[in-house]
Amino acid sequence: SEHYQLYVPESAQVGSAVGKIKANDADTGSNADMTYSIINGDGVGIFSISTDKETREGILSLKKPLNYEKKKSYTLNIEGANTHLDFRFSHLGPFKDATMLKIIVGDVDEPPLFSMPSYVMEVYENAKIGTVVGTVLAQDPDSANSLVRYFIDYNPEDDRFFNIDANTGTIKTTKVLDREETPWYNITVAASENDNPSLLSHVTVGIRVLDVNDNPPELAREYDIVVCENSKPGQ
Questions:
Q1: Does one domain contain both 34 and 129?
Q2: Band of pLDDT at residue 219, cut at 50, 70 and 90
Q3: Three-class SS of the chain
């Protein structure tokens, strides 16, 4: 049996065709019709094969996502069998051609991965400028483990109430917050890799401003306090 090698990048989409294989067959016409199947190998659950009737090729498709960091190669044993069996040769059994296919998973540089899909943090109103609100964390999912830098993705017209430490991901206040004015802030934090700054990830950080009892209750209007002369104490 023959050996083939196929390169598939880890970014390949599930359901997409990732390669083709063709069994050698001297026959022509309907006698050359082939059907392909995966017999065994550690890639059995990851890949599937179908047969292109026109070209008589086996089309290899991806069933589950690849991850170079977890597994760098797979092996598949693939069989091509003639579907039309001529009765004169039936005593020879079906004509089959088996091949071993080695699949090499290609490493693709991926953007940083945040530790959570979104963050919620809390800070007291009237906290002094520079108060730590919380910290986000993102890591390079690749084996290179590149350093990650953080920034807040503000619109030009936004009031900037917070800043982030580019190296540590720690968010601090830049202004004194007033809960009565704004009880909740949504900011977008971006993370990029030092080696490849164009690869960005974004995450939403919700910041809840907690109440400090700074507004003494006010009576709606001046009440006239009337005391009846003959009332007993406590009435």
A1: no
A2: low
A3: CEEEEEEEECCCCCCCEEEEECCCCCCCHHHHCEEEEEEECCCCCCEEEEEECCCCEEEEEECCCCCCCCCCEEEEEEEEEECCCCHHHHHHCCCEEEEEEEEEEECCCCCCEECCCEEEEEEECCCCCCCEEEECCEECCCCCCCCEEEEECCCCCCCCCEEECCCCCEEEECCCCCCCCCCEEEEEEEEEECCCCCCEEEEEEEEEEECCCCCCCCCCCCCCCCCCCCCCCCC
How many structural domains comprise the chain? Answer: 2
Q: What is the extent of the structural domain holding 23?
A: 2-106
Q: Are 76 and 123 found together in one domain?
A: no
pLDDT at residue 209 greater than cutoff 90 = yes
pLDDT, tens only, 221-230: 555 556 566 6
Does the model's pTM come out above 0.85?
no
